[in-house]
Structure formats: structure tokens, C-alpha cells
Q: What sequence folds into this?
């Protein structure tokens, strides 16, 4: 009988220990894989109108939000928004050409170059990448090297912009009932003097919704409120309630000190405007986008996942999706029918979107792929690069 020589006597007679150490090695390899997601992106489809990128083994790295586009390096920067909370202390860079790659930067910790709180938003300005985390903004170069930290800002930041040495800050609202009417919501902050130069109280937002019969304080049903800074003097808030007829967009014009409540016109029946609601453009600071997605009958009837899977597999036509371009006065400029269907791909759900170049979009989404042999669906997170120029529909 052949005996395995070991530095630990008797190890070859203890199979449970062998299994334990094998589990530890596999776990460490998995952790290392999560910390180094580079070079995992591959192409699922690549045509003139659409390119779909997925990852080899850990698709959670394409679950990004609050994305921004850098035209100089042809790269996307964003924040992880998946279920793994340990990955929220980083920001990501996806290089789109010549070969797609994924990198992450940052580190959880207490130092000035580390993230004490999860990252909330990324913005690219000239040669810098600015990342909001709690009530501070960290500045990096485009390769992730730390430069400086801006601390002690007036509140935790939902979104921001940077213009002529001034930060345009939008407050994170966990719940409308937890913020007082006189507390600041929109702030212009001079970083050279470390002081506020302009402030808009939450009362302005509250009154803007109340004029349209939406009382943020008294709403008992679940309410979701998300804000984005469109340019240096305009912010847009998207509200979702259980009463779908009241969902809409509140545009805050800081220069005119007024609000405008509007809704995008739906193109087809059985559809909703999806979260997070407001999607920016990197090439036009005077517009934003909302996305309308058609729901299947399983969604409308409240069916569970099994029924939904069966419906998707039997569906002959893909669900309709429309991207609406809105100006900062609340008027719809045009819309695009999103032509995404590819062989083997049967469903899609948007996560985030940005216009990188005129009528060209980068879209993060969950896609359902069909396994013909097993007659089942499996999900992947994907990045879709879509040329919309041929699908524009003028109003």
C-alpha cells in the first residue's frame, strides 16, 4: 500500500482535515478572484447596432450605478451596486477599447485615501475622478492614484457636479420624513474657501411635490426618491409611490428658484418608468433620460419566478423598451425604441444608463439567456453599447 509522506504525521489518515483545507484554499481563491476582476469581460454579441459585454465567471462586477463617461480614455467609471457589501468601498473603471477590461480602485479603511463609508457617486472632470463617500469627496487621477480629500461637507451626498471651483451637492434622503423643511437639500460649495455660497432648503422640494398632490411627509406607503444633478443649476428628482399615477419628475431650477413637475408620455400599454429614474448625458448637460419598459402578464398578475420563467420562455416577441429624452424644462424632445433582441437572449431589465456620445448609450442591465437544451433561463449582468441613431422617433 502506497503511503503519502506528510510533514504533518497522520494527515493522510484524516480525510476530514483534507476536505477542510481544500475548502479554505477554494475560499481564498474565490476571495482573490473578487478582488481582481480584471480581464474577465468577453463579448456576447457584437454588431453595428449593439455590443453586449458579459463577464466570464463573476457577473456581479457589471452591476454598476451612478456611471460617468470619460471621452479621453473611452472609459466608464461607476459604483458597485450588487449584493456583496464588501465591494461598495471601491469605484470601477471599464475600458471600452481597444480591448474591454475591468479594474477597481479604492480600499476600505480610516485613512484619507481609504473609504470609511461606501462610495455613493463617481464623476469625471478633466484629468480627475471624484468619488463621493458619506459627507466627503475623494479625488483620484484616472488610474486610481489618490490626490486629495475634501472633508466635512454639509451632508451625505446623493449626487454632485463640479463647475468653476465650486461643488454642486445634492443631499442623500433616506426618508422624506427624516429631514426637516429648513435643512439644506441643494448646496453650492466653494472648495477654496470651504463655505456654502448658495443653498436651497428641502422645503422647496416639499412644496414642489405638494402642488401636485404628493405630500412627502404624510405618504404612508413605500416611497422611493432619487435625485441627480444634471448641470450646475439644475437637479431632477424621480419619485416612485405605490400609486403609479403620481410617479413623476420634479425639476429644480436653482437660478430661477422654481420647480417643475412633469411626466414622460408612455408609448405603450402595461409599462412603467424604471428605477433609478433619472439617467444623464455626458455630451449634453441640458437633457436627461427616463426609460419605459413593458411588463409581461406574469408581472401584472403578481406571479412568482417560476411562472415568469415559463412566460419568458414561451414569448415570441421581446418586451418593448423606450428611452425618452427630456429637456430641463420638462418637455420630451424625442424617444428611442430600444432594439436589443439577440439570439439566445429573451429578456432584459435596465440597471443604469448614460449617453456617451450623441445617440449612443452605455447600458448596464440584467439579461436572461436561454438554455435550449435544458429549456431554462439563466441570468447575467451585462454592459450593452447601443447605437440609437437609427431608432429615433420624433414626437
A:
Amino acid at each position: 500500500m502506497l503511503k503519502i509522506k506528510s510533514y504533518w504525521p497522520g494527515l493522510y489518515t484524516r480525510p476530514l482535515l483534507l476536505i477542510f483545507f481544500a475548502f479554505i484554499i477554494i475560499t481564498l481563491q474565490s476571495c482573490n478572484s473578487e478582488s481582481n476582476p480584471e480581464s474577465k469581460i468577453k463579448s456576447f454579441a457584437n454588431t453595428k447596432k449593439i455590443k453586449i459585454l458579459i463577464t466570464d465567471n463573476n457577473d456581479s462586477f457589471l452591476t454598476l450605478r451612478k456611471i460617468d463617461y470619460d471621452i479621453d480614455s473611452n472609459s466608464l467609471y461607476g459604483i458597485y451596486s450588487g449584493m456583496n457589501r464588501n465591494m461598495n468601498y471601491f469605484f470601477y473603471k471599464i475600458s471600452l477599447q481597444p480591448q474591454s477590461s475591468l479594474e477597481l480602485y479604492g480600499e476600505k479603511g480610516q485613512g484619507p485615501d481609504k473609504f470609511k463609508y461606501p462610495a455613493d457617486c463617481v464623476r469625471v472632470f478633466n484629468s480627475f475622478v471624484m468619488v463621493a463617500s458619506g459627507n466627503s469627496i475623494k479625488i483620484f487621477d484616472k488610474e486610481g492614484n489618490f490626490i486629495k480629500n475634501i472633508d466635512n461637507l454639509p451632508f451625505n451626498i446623493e449626487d454632485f457636479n463640479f463647475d468653476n471651483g465650486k461643488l454642486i451637492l445634492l443631499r442623500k434622503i433616506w426618508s422624506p420624513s427624516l429631514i426637516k423643511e429648513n435643512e439644506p437639500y441643494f448646496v453650492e460649495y466653494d472648495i477654496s474657501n470651504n463655505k456654502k455660497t448658495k443653498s436651497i432648503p428641502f422645503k422647496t422640494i416639499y412644496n414642489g411635490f405638494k402642488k401636485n398632490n404628493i405630500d412627502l411627509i404624510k405618504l404612508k406607503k413605500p416611497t422611493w426618491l432619487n435625485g441627480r444633478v444634471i448641470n450646475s443649476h439644475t437637479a431632477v428628482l424621480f419619485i416612485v409611490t405605490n400609486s403609479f399615477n403620481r410617479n413623476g419628475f420634479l425639476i429644480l431650477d436653482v437660478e430661477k428658484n422654481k420647480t417643475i413637475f412633469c411626466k414622460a408620455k408612455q408609448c405603450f400599454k402595461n409599462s412603467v418608468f424604471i428605477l433609478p429614474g433619472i439617467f444623464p448625458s455626458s455630451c449634453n448637460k441640458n437633457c436627461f433620460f427616463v426609460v419605459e419598459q413593458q411588463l409581461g402578464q406574469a408581472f401584472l398578475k403578481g406571479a412568482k419566478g417560476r411562472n415568469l420563467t415559463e412566460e419568458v420562455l414561451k414569448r415570441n416577441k421581446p418586451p418593448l423598451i423606450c428611452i425618452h429624452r427630456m429637456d430641463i424644462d420638462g418637455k420630451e424632445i424625442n424617444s428611442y425604441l430600444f432594439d436589443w433582441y439577440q439570439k439566445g437572449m429573451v429578456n432584459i431589465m435596465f440597471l443604469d444608463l448614460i449617453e456617451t456620445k450623441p445617440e449612443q448609450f452605455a447600458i448596464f442591465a440584467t439579461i436572461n439567456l436561454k438554455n435550449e437544451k435544458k429549456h431554462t433561463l439563466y441570468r447575467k449582468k451585462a454592459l450593452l453599447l447601443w447605437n440609437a441613431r437609427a431608432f429615433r422617433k420624433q414626437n
